[in-house]
Amino acid sequence: RGQVTAKYYVLAWSFLLVGGSILALSKGGVLPSNGFTDHAAQIGSLFEVVLLSFALAQRINVERRLRYEAQSETLATARRLNLELEDRVHERTRELESLNHKLNELSVTDELTGLKNRRHMDQVLRLELERAKRSGRPLAVALLDIDHFKPVNDTHGHPVGDECLKLVAEIIHAGLRWPSDTATRYGGEEFAVIFPDTDAQGAFVVVERIRERIRETRIEVEDVVISLTVSAGIYAPAVHQGLTAEELVRGADEALYSAKEHGRDRTIMLNPGALIKPD
């Protein structure tokens, strides 16, 4: 592009130089004097002006093209950077969402057993109770407590006790029938299960199967063989209106206490119409 402009400049000055030379030769008698030779300088100057105009126009076009290309390149770079930034933002957002999900999971998960913790159980129970009140569908709550667990810890140590808790948690979780059923570690050696859309008899069948499976399992930890049993209490009121989540848990706890009082290793259902006595 620069060479084209240079050519215009060379031709323009060449015409001026040739025109001036012809005029000088004409005045010196070397060339004959006529209309062309007498006006050769003006003619050369005219061609010079025309060619310089072409050169200027060419230069302007070149500058305009370069400016357009620079703008296009700048816009393309800006778009590319924006896309890269958006990708990074989306990637970072996904990472943060994943991390937030993991943190939320950790906040509602029992570290030892992998079951949901009491905080999660309280949240789910309130939601399921409200749903049961709206739909009129049944809802059952069960509490399971390992019988005579303290002597296991005292005799064999907490590592063995922890392994026992893990295995019991696995059996409880594996014994659930539906994805909506929620098993949680309620505290210590006590576990809770929420049974949405399940009446007392349905919950009783599931809990009994879990209880029998625990009783039949021999737990081997560090060359120690341990047999465990659990007592369970179930509360599945016929009418949910006016009840709170705390009262549902209290009802299951009363049934669990009754199972302990009647010899342990058994499941007892609280009468659906029983009054819940405040603590």
General description of the model:
This protein has helices at residues 2-27, 35-38, 40-107, 118-135, 149-156, 158-174, 200-216, 245-261; strands at 139-146, 182-187, 190-196, 218-221, 224-227, 230-235, 267-269. With 279 residues, the chain is of the alpha+beta class. The protein folds into two domains: 2-89; 118-269, 2-Layer Sandwich (Alpha-Beta Plaits), CATH 3.30.70.270. α8 links the parallel β6 and β7 (267-269). α1 packs antiparallel against α3 and α5 crosses α6. The model is unreliable at 275-279 (pLDDT under 50).
Structure summarized in a few sentences:
By secondary structure, the chain is α+β, with helices and mostly antiparallel strands.
List its traits.
alpha+beta; about 280 residues; single chain; rod-shaped; 8 helices; two-stranded antiparallel sheet; 2 domains; about 15% strand; Alpha-Beta Plaits; five-stranded mixed sheet; disordered C terminus
Please describe the topology of this protein:
Layout lengths: L1 H26 L7 H4 L1 H68 L10 H18 L3 E8 L2 H8 L1 H17 L7 E6 L2 E7 L3 H17 L1 E4 L2 E4 L2 E6 L9 H17 L5 E3 L10
Helix pairs in contact: 1-3, 5-6
Unreliable stretches: 275-279
Please tell me the total number of domains.
2
Question: Strand portion, in percent?
Answer: 5-15%
Would you state the CATH class of the largest domain?
Alpha Beta
Helix content: 55-70%
> What would you call the shape?
rod-shaped
Structural class: alpha+beta
Rg, Å, rounded: 47 Å
Biggest pleated sheet: 5 strands, mixed
Strand order of the largest sheet: 2-3-1-6-7
What is the element string, with H for helices and E for strands?
A: HHHHEHHEEHEEEHE
The CATH topology annotation of the largest domain reads as Alpha-Beta Plaits
CATH architecture classification name of the largest domain: 2-Layer Sandwich
CATH-level-4 superfamily name of the largest domain: Reverse transcriptase/Diguanylate cyclase domain
Number of DSSP E strands = 7
Q: How many H/I helices?
A: 8
pLDDT averaged over residues: 88
End-to-end gap? 95 Å
